[in-house]
Design brief:
The protein has a five-stranded antiparallel β-sheet with strand order 2-7-4-5-11, with helices on one face. With about 180 residues, the protein is of the alpha+beta class. Strand 4 and strand 5 form a beta hairpin. Helix 1 crosses helix 3. It contains six helices and eleven strands. It has a single domain, classed as Jelly Rolls.
């Protein structure tokens, strides 16, 4: 069991504020705390997801298409989630996550969390929306890298079914999901 206090869990992320006290207690029961050293890979792109993480402290790098620094698309810090979509939907990981510094995180068992979230559909929906937003931001960045000099904008959001498209309009800066800082170029 994680050392994390169930009452304090809602202070780590707004998603946990959607749970009641019993739900937070159950969630903490499905978690373990881990400390990971710098340069260690926490999860690999393409692996089947069976757990997800909440960063308590530290900094991690999210990389798509490889585990080298050139593949970085985002950095994660305290209150960031990662791995939740693969874990909750039984899909393959869409990115590799590497610790940049000693990081403390809470690891949640996906199957146990799925059982808990059956009683909290709003929390499950919020996690899925967070994952969709993150996917949209990653797609936008990949298009920008493949078509340098062509501004890229998003019309609407992934949550309403829009797509990323190249346009002549100025590019909008990406809006970060909770705790995620887009990679600076």
């Amino acid at each position: 069991m994680a050392v994390l206090d169930p009452a304090a869990l809602k202070n780590h992320s707004r998603l946990f504020a959607l749970l009641d006290d019993v739900g937070r207690q159950r969630l903490v029961g499905a978690a373990v705390e881990e400390t990971v050293p710098p340069k260690e890979v926490v999860l690999f792109e393409g692996d089947l997801g069976d757990s997800f993480f909440l960063v308590v402290d530290g900094e991690l790098s999210v990389r798509i298409g490889g585990k080298d620094e050139k593949s970085e698309v985002a950095r994660l810090g305290p209150a960031s989630f990662f791995g939740e979509i693969a874990a909750l939907l039984g899909e393959k990981r869409s990115a590799t996550v590497v610790c940049l510094q000693r990081s403390r995180m809470v690891k949640f068992d996906g199957r146990k969390v799925q059982t808990i979230l059956k009683d909290y559909p709003k929390v499950r929906e919020a996690l899925v929306k967070l994952g969709l937003k993150r996917s949209e931001e990653n797609l936008q960045q990949m298009v920008e890298e493949d078509f340098p000099g062509v501004p890229v904008t998003t019309e609407g959001s992934a949550l309403s079914g829009s797509v990323v498209s190249a346009s002549c309009a100025p590019a909008k800066p990406p809006v970060s999901a909770e705790g995620i800082v887009p990679k600076k170029k």
